[in-house]
Amino acid sequence: MRQVRRDRWMRQEQLQPLVVADGNPVEVAIVGCYQLHPTAQEHPRGWGYLADDGHYGFGATTTRRRFDGQGELAAEARALFWALLRLLPAHHVTVVTDYPEIADMVNAWRRGDLTAAPPGYDLSDRPSGREAKLMHLAPRVHQHADQVDVRVADSYEDTALGRAANELSVLGWKWCAGELTKTTAADRALAIASKALGVEPILVPRMNGTEEQDEPHDDSSDLTDHLSRTSQDGSDSMSNGSSSRSRREPLINGRRVRIADLIDAGLLAADTDLTFQQRIGETPYRATVTAGGHLRLPDGREFATPSRAAAEAAGLVAVPGWAVWRVQPSGQTLHHLRVKLLKDVAEEVAADQARPHKEAEAVRRRFAVLEEARAEAEEGTPRTLTVREFIRHWGLEDRDRTTSAQIDADLANHGLTTIPDFRTVSLDKTIRIVVLPEGDSDDAATDVASDGVEATTSDDEESVDFGLTLGNLLPDDMSLAWVSPTASFEEAITAMQVDDFSQIAVLTNPYTLHGAVSWESIAAAKHRNARAAFSDAIDRRAATRVFDYNVRLLDVLETLQQSGFIFVRDDQRKITGIITAADVVRKYDETATPFFLIGEIDQELRQLLQNTFDEETVRQACSSAGSSFRSFDSMSIGQYQAVLDNPDCWQQLDWPLDRRVFIKRLDQLRKVRNNVMHFNPDPVRHTDVDKLRHFLDLIRRYSR
């Protein structure tokens, strides 16, 4: 067989514990992922596969002209290609797919019909002279027809292999779309595959440390980079003006600045020398900028981020690389160049006539606010405000994973962070905007840096998803009630009764928990000795149940279940709150009501579509909106929206309602649904719960 060009975004590995000898049967699940990209003209098609012998792969392609049929089917065909290319003829392979078209194609190849392909697939050779990938695979399948079987599953969710393959395909999409770095995608893929197969995450070493490939390609570029360089006919454009503008576009929407961005903007050149010095008089550490946007240390090691390069050079746990590396001979820090780039981007946005004025003004204002906050923090007077006030600079009323990641990236691009972390406390908690720690050796080498910022914090690391934390649960309008170890029974009992508490903290000072007193501990002490002293009723085991505000709730549920309550300390190590099992129930009750309402809306819409339209009508409506339809049972709210927004379908519904107003509200509820299903830390607003109720009533009123 002739060599084939690997996809621009792809990775293939095998787990060491599951390696089997050639000739053994192997089952492999393949899945494709196709979603419209909000800003790109071409849309990624992610693919993934996982075999029970530990082989797995994932990646994506954006080439639109190869396939004019269903995007998801095209992506799954890509997964088939790479899976069989890797596994055949070494093994007897059973392919598991949820597309009958894939099974029909493979079986046709086995019978000798080497031109079989999914609808819309271009069988001709590519402009480069290469053979179409599926036509490249067909002869191999025919040659080893007795070693290939295909099984059609109702859904990829039917098996652990299928579910993991789906997760891998989504990783490929996100990597291609620039939402994940190559390293992060690879790490997550290893975790997904090893967890699905129940083995240790140990990979088979690669030959010479690399994957086989016939041509070099750049895996580090994101989708925006690729699309901005690709012309209509697929060739690379030599023009750099529109490319730079497209490349910079994500910087205003929450992507962290990279060294490559500085090079593209002409602010930094390859082979430039950088230095950083921990202390005056010490020999500075050195690095060189590479053409690929990495930093190369004198020993030849290269690192993609300044922080990692600085930490490795100095032998420290963490160093804020953007702040410490200085360009020679000018002496400017990388952060200075980063700010200049961001300022240029903000000015470009403001001058862009095609962009709405309100959006352009918001970008400019946000840049100014962060620069002012940086100056105030450097002067030692950090800006303080509530989380609610803080996120309004991004036009937000509450937080979700996507917007929190954008805010975190914007902060990092300005060398800032918040204390406490804005994601880990409630909306009305006061935070301070501070500069990331300067990374002198004493602080950077310890677990906690100065001013309470974790030493591992880096302004070019991936954003962390905290989930629901203890700080999110603490009420803002309630301070911790406590008594001293020398208090009396009367004092403790009165303090509990006035606020209807079941327990109260016993503190030596605001930072030292001595224990807790509860109705239960008082009763036990008095039962043992009617003349018991107050100290006899103190449960000193409670002093071991103190957790930081940024600890995830899931990590302490078992402790809460066993003891009934825990204590929380803030970023200053002060004991500031108590969380009980009742607080957890209350929090989940906030989520339960909208959760059930969304479930009922989903059921009503599905039943409405089933009773009104046939499958072919729904499939065509979904296809017109860029979505693939499998069955009524697997439809999403976005697909309901696609069908009901179709003028012909709406007319067939024959409701005396305005389609645009109806769809606008359905789209609003889709966003509410996403927040609820992702368990975002902020409660669903009462107005949104009311919208869910009213919309459910509306559907029931007209569908009966």
Question: Main traits of this protein?
Answer:
20 strands; about 700 residues; globular; 6-stranded mixed sheet; Nucleotidyltransferase, domain 5; 5 domains; 5-stranded antiparallel sheet; alpha+beta
Strand content: 5-15%
Largest sheet: 6 strands, mixed
The low-confidence parts are 64-69, 208-247, 438-457
Number of helices: 25
**Structural class of the secondary elements?**
alpha+beta
Major sheet strand order: 1-4-3-2-5-6
Q: What's the shape?
A: globular
**What would you give as the CATH superfamily of the largest domain?**
Ribonuclease H-like superfamily/Ribonuclease H
Please, how many domains?
A: 5
In CATH, the topology of the largest domain is named: Nucleotidyltransferase, domain 5
Protein name: RAMA domain-containing protein
Pfam family, one: RAMA
Domain RAMA: 242-346
Biased composition (Low complexity): 229-244
Would you give an account of this structure?
- It is a single chain.
- The protein has 704 residues and is α+β, with helices and mostly antiparallel strands.
- The protein has 5 domains: 9-223, 2-Layer Sandwich (Nucleotidyltransferase, domain 5); 241-337, no CATH class; 358-463, no CATH class; 471-573, Roll (CBS-domain); 584-703, no CATH class.
- Helices cover 42% and strands 14% of the residues.
- It contains 25 helices and 20 strands.
- It has a 6-stranded mixed beta sheet, sandwiched between helices. It has a 5-stranded antiparallel beta sheet with strand order 10-9-8-7-11, covered by helices on one side. It has a 3-stranded antiparallel beta sheet with strand order 12-14-13.
- α2 crosses α3.
- The longest helix is centred in the last third of the chain and has 32 residues, at 581-612.
- The model is unreliable at 64-69, 208-247 and 438-457 (pLDDT under 50).
- This is RAMA domain-containing protein.
- InterPro entries: CBS_dom_sf, RAMA, RNaseH-like_sf.
